[in-house]
């Protein structure tokens, strides 16, 4: 009598096992490698910013990693950075001119940025931070932001608070804020903004409190 053919599942069981084991090894390994790289980038960015005198705020409510992951990744003090203040810098001009703002991308949970009184902050700098789509609060008081830079607010749709006191913004610039439907307050005192401009924006954002 001819032998019965081996079940299909048996013929491929060894191959399936090998594939499964490979994925099992590569998956966690790739994840750990990615997290290690992210942690290193955050540490480098944070050290550079701390050296310049920036002040950080950390989200204390974020769930901590397991002890094993903390052991593998090392220092994660800056993993849950939620706010950075540049306004505390004694001389922010060299930072913005030479160092740039590229390190901000290393903090995915960043929600608050304070550039008040950073006289070197320009429209180009706003373009640099426009990729931070999770940003909720932005203080640009006493900066050189103008109407030309206001177009870069289009990507910051989660903004809830925006301070533009004593900037070079006018009614034309305010028109670029109509898409910020989550905006709760906007400060535009001592600018070129007129009451007519405020009224038009208020119609587009009825729930936003505008101080003019």
Protein described:
This protein has 212 residues and is an alpha/beta fold. It has a single domain (8-211), classed as Ribonuclease Inhibitor (Leucine-rich repeat, LRR (right-handed beta-alpha superhelix), Alpha-Beta Horseshoe). Helix content is 38%, strand content 11%. The chain has seven helices and seven strands; from the N terminus they run ααβαβαβαββαβαβ. A seven-stranded mixed β-sheet has the order 1-2-3-4-5-6-7, with no helix packed on it. It starts with 7 loop residues before the first helix and ends with a strand. Mean pLDDT is 81; it is low at 8-12.
Assign the CATH topology: Leucine-rich repeat, LRR (right-handed beta-alpha superhelix)
CATH class call: Alpha Beta
| Rounded radius of gyration (Å) | 25 Å
Specify the helix fraction band: 25-40%
- The neighbouring-strand order within the major sheet is 1-2-3-4-5-6-7
Mean pLDDT rating? 81
Number of helices: 7
Oligomer: single chain
What is the global morphology?
elongated
Order of helices and strands: HHEHEHEHEEHEHE
Largest sheet, strands/sense/barrel: 7 strands, mixed
Q: Which architecture would the CATH scheme give at its second level? A: Alpha-Beta Horseshoe
Number of β-strand runs = 7
Low-confidence stretches at least 5 residues in length (pLDDT < 50)? 8-12
What are the defining features of this structure?
single chain, 212 residues, alpha/beta, Leucine-rich repeat, LRR (right-handed beta-alpha superhelix), 7-stranded mixed β-sheet, 7 helices, 7 strands, 11% strand, elongated
